[in-house]
Write a structure and sequence with these properties.
- By secondary structure, the chain is mainly α.
- It has a single domain, classed as lambda repressor-like DNA-binding domains (434 Repressor (Amino-terminal Domain)), CATH 1.10.260.
- The chain is 62% helix and 0% strand.
- The longest helix is centred in the N-terminal third of the chain and has 15 residues.
- The protein is globular, with a radius of gyration of 13 Å.
Length: 76
């Protein structure tokens, strides 16, 4: 599991759910739109501090950014 992709997908989903653009998050967090775009694409390797700051600016838990989506394994 590539955690950069997990974080990118979660960031994009949360951002869209809140009706925010990357530019909005740039204003809220202080991180550049270019950095946020790379994060969303899974090309950035953010520190824990960075993830904490972004989560705070989005009004979510740090865990919301790093939690993998549940896999759809049907075990019968």
């Amino acid at each position: 599991m590539d955690m950069r992709k997990v974080v990118g997908k979660n960031f994009a989903r949360i951002r869209r759910e809140k009706g925010l653009t990357q530019e909005d998050v740039e204003r809220l967090s202080g991180f550049s739109q270019q950095y946020l775009s790379g994060l969303e694409a899974g090309r950035r390797n953010p520190t824990i501090g960075t993830l904490s700051e972004i989560a705070q600016s989005l009004g979510v838990s740090f865990l919301d950014l790093v939690r993998p989506e549940p896999e759809n394994d049907e075990k019968t």
